Amino acid sequence: MRDAVDDLIWDEAPKEAAAVAILDAPELVDGALGITPDVRVFCDDWRDAASVAPELLVEHPDDLGGVDLALARLPKSLAALDHQAAVVQGAPDVTYLGGARIRHMNYSMNEVLAKHFAAVNASLGRSKSRVLRAYGPQGLESDWPKVRQHDDLGFAVAAYGATFGGTKVDPGTRLLLMALAGGGDHARLEAGTVLDWGCGNGSVAMWLAKEGMGVLARDVSWSAVAGTAVAAEVNGLTVDATWGDGLDGYADHSVDAIVTNPPFHQGVAKDSTDTLKMFDEASRVLRPGGQLWCVYNSHLPYRRALSERLGPTRVVAQDRHYTVTVTSSGR
Ligand SMILES: C[S@@+](CC[C@H](N)C(=O)[O-])C[C@H]1O[C@@H](n2cnc3c(N)ncnc32)[C@H](O)[C@@H]1O
């Protein structure tokens, strides 16, 4: 359903265009189709993309280039905004309109847009929302994906703008990799088919593939899955990375282990929903006795949740911030 941000983007948009790009704003697709039949949609979140007619979706955000109007939900990260602004370059007269809740906006967003457009200004606020307008494309080529070699880990990771963590390796993930390498409390990951759930830039998947595991990777973010695929290619490793929600599409008892640094947001209970749902689904996808390796911020009550939902869970590594657990699927 359209919200106040969508309504403001739409009200600010010119109602004439030869080709319209819609970025992360599926609710604006119908309106855009009333302007022109040439509507090209990219949504980073698989759930948003799933709500759009498949024939309108582009395969890659680079396919958006050449439109004269781009309507976007402003992403939270500046890197993701940079990627949005880069991929809609091409036509000499493209206008970009990006909207968000004012509390999620900051002046650095104007600066990012100003790198790609000659003029940037803001709409008046309405219903706690605002739109940034950008005109006069500078025609800078996209420099996404970015790749960074991590010599200490022995592999490279890759990121598009919206990939969680960019090309850094998350500190929780480092603890998880250390535990997997045997630096924790003597837990062992058996060789087999292992799924990196919520793969982000693919750092866990690369580590597993280097160890000779058969590696599956799953993320709801296109930028994560595409970044992981790029990293696998750069490293000469094989990873079957798929874009989707939760564990949808994986067959029952098809995986020997799941390794995850799952999504969470500090202190907001409802934001653990995806993770708790994955814990529930894991018992379906893991073979009986299969392991779930998980790293999380130590204040979160995940050990209890894992024990209740999946099976016996023990802590195998811990530092000042993070806890790594291993759960044996007992259901
Ligand atoms: C904390 S990040 C970890 C990323 C990466 N594994 C790392 O260690 O840097 C969690 C990841 O879970 C993904 N995610 C969130 N909800 C999801 C869902 N419902 N299904 C699949 N992946 C999801 C996010 O897009 C994000 O990339």
From TrEMBL:
Entry-linked InterPro entries: DNA_methylase_N6_adenine_CS (IPR002052), RlmG_N (IPR058679), RsmC/RlmG (IPR046977), SAM-dependent_MTases_sf (IPR029063), Small_mtfrase_dom (IPR007848)
Domain RlmG N-terminal, first and last residues per copy: 65-134
Domain Methyltransferase small: 160-325
UniProt keyword annotations, A-Z: Cytoplasm, Methyltransferase, rRNA processing, Transferase
One Pfam assignment: MTS
Protein name, as recorded: Methyltransferase small domain-containing protein
Source organism (scientific name): Tessaracoccus lubricantis
